[in-house]
Design brief:
This protein is α/β, with parallel strands linked by helices. It has one domain: L-arginine/glycine Amidinotransferase, Chain A (5-stranded Propeller), CATH 3.75.10.10. The chain is about 30% helix and about 20% strand. The chain contains 10 helices and 14 strands. The strands form 5 sheets. The chain has a 3-stranded mixed sheet, with no helix packed on it. It has a 3-stranded mixed sheet with strand order 6-7-8, sandwiched between helices. A 3-stranded mixed sheet has the order 9-10-11, sandwiched between helices. It starts with a strand and ends in a 16-residue tail after the last helix.
């Protein structure tokens, strides 16, 4: 996780992110202060549940308003690969920092670094585990088409990792492309949470059938629930082996009792109030976490 430094409303990303809301609190200092407080409380809550969290500070050298969302520029895989991704906007490209890779390499086995950032020059964008939702157990990868998710580059990454790609079209209730796949779906051990109605009709059956054929219980969420980030969750494992589904307070409160009961068959819940980060940044709990699947040295 990356501690927010220059956090604020990003006018460059807002063009493709309908989840960003420009709020009155985002007047420079107050916005950053509230985001930082939310971040620290979130990290403390994860650690309280025995989840190991490695925190890096934002670089003092740049003005990266979205540095709190590191999952978009880097991913770490169990086969030792680390992938660096091409980002859509210039003020997000400066988030990529080699010192983070170097520091993690001291404790984890990094066998190969695959740098795809040069794809930006070709206009081919793929924003990490924002663009791609991995089913690590069944070796499938899901992605919906948007300005931030290039179909051909997605399939290239699937081939590099040995995953089968499932590519589809998804839009919100206003017909706007959903900017990242991880706001409309989450995959954990035994279940998948997904906004089925967001997926275009020609692709819907294919996506749902593939999830079910993989042995996953499909838990559907509505547009309203998706807009409260109920799709932007991540399953994490604690040091004592418990599986937790991590989400924001807004996501937890919008889920129905029936949905929570379904999910409780697989996980326990962790939820934290990150409303400033969500409304100003347009991302939620899953976006804030770059999961480490590398083996320890």
């Amino acid at each position: 996780m990356v501690r927010p430094g220059q956090f604020g409303y990003n006018t460059e990303t807002a063009k493709s992110n309908a989840f960003q809301k420009k709020r009155l609190i985002c007047e420079n200092h107050n916005c950053r202060k509230e985001a930082l407080a939310e971040f620290e409380s979130f990290v403390e809550l994860l650690r309280k549940h025995q989840i190991e969290v490695l925190v890096f500070n934002s670089s003092a050298k740049n003005e990266a308003p979205d540095a709190v969302f590191p999952n978009n520029w880097i991913s770490f895989h169990e086969d030792g690969k680390v992938i660096l991704y091409p980002m859509l906007t210039k003020n997000r490209r400066i988030e990529r920092r080699t010192e983070i890779e170097d520091e993690l390499g001291k404790s984890f086995e990094i066998k190969k670094i695959i740098d795809l950032s040069s794809e930006e020059l070709k206009g081919r964008i793929l924003e990490g585990t924002g663009s791609i939702v991995f089913d690590h157990i069944n070796k499938f990868a899901y992605a919906n088409e948007s300005a931030r998710t290039n179909k051909h580059l997605f399939y290239d990454v699937c081939q590099l990792l040995g995953y089968q790609g499932i590519f589809f079209k998804a839009v919100d209730e206003n017909g706007m492309d959903i900017y990242h796949t991880n706001v409309l779906m989450t995959i954990g051990e035994g279940y998948a949470v997904i906004c089925k109605e967001a997926i275009d009709e020609p692709d819907r059956g294919f996506v749902i059938n593939n999830l079910q054929a993989s042995g996953l219980e499909v838990i559907e969420i509505s547009f309203d629930q998706m807009n409260h980030f109920a799709g932007n969750m991540i399953q994490l494992k604690s040091k004592d082996g418990k599986n937790y589904l991590v989400m924001s307070q807004a996501a937890f409160e919008i889920l129905t009792e029936a949905q929570l009961n379904q999910l409780s068959n697989y996980v326990e819940f962790i939820h934290s109030d990150i409303h400033t980060i969500e409304s100003v940044g347009g991302g939620s709990a899953r976006c804030m976490i770059a999961g480490i699947h590398l083996e320890r040295k």
